[in-house]
Amino acid sequence: MRTKLVAGNWKMHGSLATNVGLLEAVRDGAKGPAEVAVCVPYPYLAQARSVLEGSRVAWGAQDVSEHAQGAYTGEVSGAMLADFGCRHVLVGHSERRSFYGDTDAVVAAKFAAAQKAGLMPVLCVGESLAEREAGITGEVVTRQIDAGLAGNGIDSLANAVVAYEPVWAIGTGRTASPQQAQEVHALIRARFARDSAAIAAGLRILYGGSVKANNAAELFGQADIDGGLIGGASLVAADFLAICAAA
User: Fold this and answer.
1) Which of 35, 66, 127, 165 is catalytic?
2) Which residue in the list 35, 66, 93, 95 is annotated as catalytic?
3) Which of 26, 77, 162, 242 could covalently link to 213 via disulfide, CB atoms 3.0 to 4.6 Å apart?
């Protein structure tokens, strides 16, 4: 049985003053066998480390540069994140792909850079509303996966996590049913199984489509959903902890 992972993605939210209570509540309230992590904006990594170090809650970042060092003003390298004790980092999040132009090739390079720095990348994949309505979900998700595999190989997934984000079900008023989510998770696992049955069996695939306290248990009960990548609900301690408990 794969260990569940619940990762909170704070997006561009928070302040030093408001973060303390949230981090302390998650630190003190996270129980059970599931792994828990919070991915915070860069300026709050030191604060997250200060509050969470020595606890069962890990911390990580929301993006990483594909470059190890150099004249890349504004970028943050994997080694810099490792200096702050990060364990996880998101790569290829839908907002990075759509707002900042992260291509499949860039995402693959960031994935490699994260692993080179000793971090566990969370590779985000998923389709837009237009792609869903066009019936090409499988094609889009497979293309995103193949780009990562082409640059890094199937063995790299032994130290990685995948997160399925149905972009069409995030902030659109539409929702994906547990069955729809499971269908794509199964497709993702089957794609990796073509290269390695062992890697596919052990791979944790998270669901990132508006997971809430009231739907987490049913989602996490699906055969191929191994936890969640949580957005807005991770900013409310009680909601996030209820999701963790469901895992």
Assistant:
1) 165
2) 93
3) 242
Task: Summarize pLDDT for 42-87 with one digit per residue, the tens.
Answer: 999 999 999 999 999 999 999 999 999 999 999 999 999 999 999 9
User: What's the CA gap between 114 and 182, in Å, rounded?
Assistant: 28
Mean pLDDT for the stretch of residues 168-186: 85
User: Is 93 known to be catalytic?
Assistant: yes
Q: Considering just the CA atoms, what is the radius of gyration of the chain in Å?
A: 17
CA 24 → CA 11, 73, 193, distances in Å? 19, 33, 39
**Torsion on CA atoms 76, 81, 84, 86, rounded to nearest 10:** 150
Residue with tokens 């069962």: 56
In terms of C-beta density within 10 A (0-12 exposed, 13-18 middle, 19 or more buried), how is residue 15 classed?
exposed
Are 194 and 203 in contact by the 8 Å Cβ rule? The answer is no
pTM: 0.95
Active site residue 165: yes
**Cα separation values, 16 from 20, 50, 244, Å:** 7, 12, 24
